[in-house]
Design brief:
Length: 424
């Protein structure tokens, strides 16, 4: 791996009329290039209309590579993106403000640092970086600063297969599950989606697949940039296609290699705590936060009022909900249900999963004293015979804790961790 550091202040003038800036860098060998751009934009606030963000066009050696969304506010923050395969020698990274797509009241951009990396074929990172997808956005999402990809990660395929699975975190989803049910059954309002996988089975068969409309897993048959598959977000719940308009805005967040053994996908957000702040800001801007929001309203209280729970288990024809025990000033315990009395707010999947429930104003994490589980026979599906009560079964294997967000929307330390086996 080669690292090249460039310290600079650029694009820091007035919000309009900023000149593009060039940043030359040298690569000693062929490889996959990744660059971390530490930047902020004056007056930017993802939660305020007309000040959401600045979009930068990123060019490599004069050719369009992608856009960079500065969604994390005024303070300079790191944005890690892929540039794709580059040969050895000198290259030029150009950053220019896309005024037409940037928020009209966003101010000047400050580029504090550019940190370029080259991963040669001999490096362990090259194998999974070189196959990571470049993602084109759905028309209308950039214009509304909604449902945009802000983070990517990659997992190794489960043995005996070899290969990788790539997933993306979007700021929200316009379609699919309503906001209040997302919090109750997923513990977030971002959208987390598997987008592409390349796996070789034990018999040597290579499968390249995408998650397409209706969550169908289809073969990837599209074009590539080098060995990177090119994908297009094609539905309002962020499913993808392997073809689309050539003029669509493109993003290429560099994925992190993460193991999710015995944890949920939402752990990726915990490791990148700023994603909770972006999540909350988009909820605020879109009018989805209501201190008195009731189940079925598609609105939620401030995410900092929620208790977030994570557990792992197997569900057989069942759904599950949890109750959080909150200590009261008189020494009693008040129980707060994650399903909030609504069967639609129960979890219906096996594995490791999150739930979240709003607590009364002023409750702190120190008051979270206990958790209990409730299991239900799931509703009958189309074409199934009726299932009598008690048919479903839940086997709980882990409880990875309960936590709350601090004032800066950062997850606090989890409480009440447990492993074992409980059947209900």
């Amino acid at each position: 791996m080669t690292r090249l550091f460039l310290l600079l202040l650029a694009l820091a003038g007035a919000g309009q009329g900023q000149s593009p800036t060039d940043h030359p860098f040298m690569l000693p060998s062929d490889g996959e290039a990744v660059v971390t751009i530490t930047a902020g934009c004056e007056r930017c606030d993802w939660g305020v209309p007309s000040r959401e963000a600045v979009l930068l066009r990123v060019l490599v050696d004069g050719t369009y590579s992608q856009h960079l969304l500065l969604a994390r506010g005024e303070a300079p923050a790191p944005y890690r993106i892929m540039l794709g395969p580059l040969t050895s020698g000198e290259h030029r990274l150009t950053l220019e403000r896309d005024q037409a797509r940037s928020a009209k009241d966003a101010g000047g951009v400050k580029i504090e640092r550019v940190d370029a990396h080259s991963y040669a074929k001999s490096s362990p990172e090259h194998e999974w970086l070189s196959q990571a997808p470049f993602l084109h956005t759905r028309p209308g999402t950039v214009e509304r600063f909604s449902d945009l990809p802000i983070l990517a990660w990659v997992e190794r395929a489960p043995a005996p297969a070899t290969g990788f699975r790539y997933s993306v975190i979007f700021t929200h989803e316009d379609g699919g599950t309503p906001t209040d049910r997302l919090m109750a059954t997923w513990g977030r309002t971002t959208d987390v989606e598997f987008v592409y996988g390349a796996e070789r089975s034990a018999d040597g068969l290579l499968r390249e697949e995408i998650q397409a409309k209706n969550h169908d897993i289809l073969p990837f048959q599209g074009n590539r940039l080098g060995s990177h598959p090119l994908l297009w977000v094609s539905t309002d719940n962020n499913m993808v296609s392997d073809s689309g308009p050539s003029d669509a805005v493109r993003f290429a967040p560099a994925p992190e290699l993460i193991s999710l053994t015995n944890v949920s996908r939402e752990v990726v957000m915990d490791k990148n705590a700023w994603t909770y702040a972006v999540m909350a800001a988009e909820l605020r801007r879109e009018g989805r936060i209501d201190p008195a929001g009731q189940p079925g309203s598609a609105k939620v209280p401030d995410p900092r009022r929620f208790a977030y729970l994570e557990a792992c288990g197997e569900l057989d024809r069942a759904t599950v909900a949890f109750d959080v025990g909150v200590s009261q000033s008189d020494g009693t315990t008040a129980w707060v249900a994650t399903d909030r009395g609504d069967a639609r707010f129960r979890i219906a999947r096996s594995g490791c999963f999150r739930a979240a429930v709003p607590l009364a104003e002023g409750i702190t994490a120190d008051q979270l004293m206990a958790v209990r589980m409730r299991a239900y026979t799931r509703p009958r599906r189309d074409g199934e015979p009726a299932m009598p009560p008690g048919t479903g079964q839940v086997t709980l294997q882990r409880f990875n804790g309960v936590f709350m967000l601090d004032e800066q929307y950062r997850p606090g330390p989890p409480r009440l961790l447990w492993t074992g086996s409980i059947e209900a």
